[in-house]
Amino acid sequence: MKRLLVLALVVVPAVALAQQPAPAPAPTPTPAAGTASGAWDVMANIGGADIAMKCTMTQKDADLSGSCASDQSTNALTGKLDGKKVTWQFDTVYEGQTLTVVYVGTLETAEKIVGTVDVRPMAVSGDFTATKAK
User: Fold this and answer.
1) Quick one: pLDDT at residue 33?
2) More confident residue, 106 or 32
3) Of 30, 47, 63, 85, which has fewest CB within 10 angstroms of its CB?
């Protein structure tokens, strides 16, 4: 009788456990927000003028550094990546005046940034699209 009771206490829970569904797989980790590192082809329309540049960015943690080159000059840039928000800026000289060009965009995909650009202190602005250079 004790043997039957011990058998029932061991077998019944083992059978019950075997009939339970398998545990759900561990959740897939959420991918990082992205990286802005690399070479980008930037097309901007600022105050009605189309401007093409190539910006090369290096990301360390949230900080960006690098340069933007147009057919007129190459300028050192600094910036930040905060989640999907990308900001960078550089100073350039136009007709003897130092201007700060500020880009604020969203990293829509690993290959595309879309946003606005402001030229300070001239109060001229526009839109831009940056795509990863191939």
Assistant:
1) 54
2) 106
3) 30
Phi, psi of 85 (to 5 degrees): -85, 125
Is 116 within 8 Å of 127 (Cβ atoms)?
A: yes
Main-chain phi, psi angles of 2, to 5 degrees: -60, -40
Cα 119 from Cα 44, distance rounded (Å): 12
Termini Cα distance of the chain = 78
Residue 98: exposure state from Cβ atoms within 10 A (0-12, 13-18, ≥19): exposed
Average pLDDT over residues 29-52: 83
Average pLDDT of span 69-97: 95
Span 14-26, mean pLDDT?
53
Distance CA 85, CA 16 (A): 51
Diameter of the chain measured on Cα atoms: 103
Q: In whole angstroms, what is the distance from residue 79 CA to residue 62 CA?
A: 8
